[in-house]
Design brief:
Layout: H1 2-22, H2 50-57, H3 66-77, E1 81-83, E2 90-92, E3 98-101, E4 106-109, H4 113-129, E5 143-155, E6 162-172, E7 179-181
Antiparallel strand pairs: 1-4, 2-3, 5-6, 6-7
Helix pairs in contact: 1-2
């Protein structure tokens, strides 16, 4: 968490909010499923100060969906491009005619390919010798990031502490990513 806090402080509020939004954390993903939940993002740039910036930097005080996490990590895997996720790639009839094909064009490039390569290598370090070592798959280079957050609206039955959510998001193989998982 201290590394994320220092990085966010160096970025400053406007750039942090730019990237936070750029990676898709402030909107629905647009996935082709009904009823997609919206993220809970309770603060805008005008209300974000040093404390809010620090806690947002390591994933506290907001809620995102698993699909949003996968979309964000996939943008790192594919060179910085944010793409709308789809459940169905295409529908083909019995005669081979394409009835539907998902639009896989990217919405925007958030960061450069070089930045993504650096991030992926850092994330691979977490698999090799860090908190994401359970994401290791023999014979494959995997990039992963663990996360633990408090659910501020859900408390233990005795009311003493908020529930926590632990997760790991990963993609691989690093050389030519094909799979992202949470």
């Amino acid at each position: 968490n201290p590394v994320f806090m220092l990085t966010a402080a160096k970025l400053g509020v406007p750039r942090f909010c730019y990237y936070f939004s750029g990676f898709g954390y402030t909107d629905r993903t647009g996935i082709d499923l009904p009823g997609e939940a919206a993220p809970l993002y309770n603060i805008g740039e005008s209300k974000m100060h040093d404390v809010e910036l620090a806690v947002y930097s390591f994933g506290q005080t907001f809620k995102v969906t698993a699909i949003q996490q996968l979309r964000a990590i996939s943008s790192v895997a594919n060179g910085g491009y944010l793409v709308t996720p789809h459940v169905v790639e295409k529908i083909i009839d019995d005669d081979g005619k394409v009835l539907y094909e998902a639009d896989n064009s990217y919405e925007r490039q958030i960061v450069s390919e070089d930045t993504c390569k650096l991030l992926a290598e850092m994330m691979e370090g977490g698999v090799i010798d860090g908190s994401a070592k359970n994401a290791y798959v023999s014979g494959y280079r995997i990039a992963a990031k663990t996360g633990t957050s408090q659910k501020q609206d859900k408390y233990a039955e005795d009311g003493s502490r908020p529930y926590r959510v632990g997760s790991t998001v990963a993609f691989g193989p690093l050389e030519s990513p094909e799979i992202a998982i949470i």
